[in-house]
Amino acid sequence: MNKIITLSICLITLVTYSQQTPQRNLYGFNKYAINPAYAGASGCTQINFSHLNQWVKVDGAPLTSMISANGLLSKKIGVGGQILVDQIGMIQQVSAMGSASYGITIAETHKIRLGASLGYNQYRIDASNAIAFDSGDPIVEGGEQAGGTINTNIGLLYQWKNLELSLGSQQLIQSTSNMSFSGLDGYGLRRHMNGYIAYNQQLGTNWLLTPSIFTKGTNNGYQVDFNTDACYKNYIFGGLGYRTSVGLIARAGIQVQELFFIGYAYETPLSNIASYSSGSHEIVLGIKFCKKEPKILPEIVALKKEDVADSMANEIKNVEIEPIPTMDTVFITRVDTVYIKSVIEEVAEVEQIEIQKKEFIPVDKDILFEFDKAIVQKESFGALESIVNIMNSNESLNISLKGHTDDQGPNAYNVKLSENRVSAVLDFLKANGIDSNRIVIEALGEKRPVADNKSLSGRKLNRRVEVRFLGQ
To answer: Are residues 129 and 31 in the same domain?
Structure first.
């Protein structure tokens, strides 16, 4: 027992120097915990609770619990906050922080976010159970002490297609807590830097592979994690990592109904403490609320019939009509009855026949969408109205909806975006009386472009839902 207590004191001394920022093994599932620039970066509201028990069986080993939340306040501004309780031997840290981030998009594909956090750290030291080697140690003699100090973090996040890069600084402003130890300044915060880089590689339609590197530390040294994680159908997660000077990390998680997430990580030490500890365990419970794209498009629902009529009238005005001669035509039947019709009447009948043909042989249409959204462009409003009219006048007619995107962004994200676009058109049709049994849907993402994605005009044409009439 004395050996364990002695070892614990040595570990506590090391931890108070090097692990001022809590250790994490599941940061890939809650990146906001390592960098405030991630506040709102996912576009969803996320709430996460995590608990880490380090170096099980070692007396005084770190116990860290944290609850955090972040989301978007507006299209560009994200906010977040976290409360953390960290117990390391005789030192307990309780901290609370609030964060804000601001994001911009450059050339449609380069996304940059800046974030900052401000909070307060409260420290409490209880040395009543400590074994002192020096009877005059001011910490042991000082009894139970408490003090606090301001804490600040900053971060930068850059995303481009499948690449993700973040840099951050925790405890940016170095400060000292106001404890009243004789001859000591108190608990001092040291500036920590961290960096994260990952690449999301789609493998087929079901798998996503993400190799990543995470590093953190101070001027005295850095710890580096080398990770490889895989995701199956955005449902089952798993991965392995190696942490320098520590050991191996295994992770697993499961997504429940796109709302709840449960994750677990186990870190096994390979040296030094391995003979005393059975490893470290961490769990995370997450809730994610994603604002779905409006399924009944506001722009479409608010569209008045007069607007559609005006739009169609403007199109008719632009059609050039050739003058029709007034020459009469004589038709003679077998019963010797003579009918005389003007050419105008004949043309009117032909036009009526053409209209009837178009009602039964409708023209396929493409519905175009705004960049990175499931919102229909205004120029496609008339096409949607036309589809509703055709379907309502031909109740035996069926259609297919195929969603597409341009090639900007990860493939898995684009498949989901194309699914949202199909859902938007589908729900608009259902809201206008079209039975869903008459509609076949498919989300194809970026894999079937109709134009060159290298140009703005080409990408515009690729952001579409193809409406194809299947016949009666």
So the answer is: yes
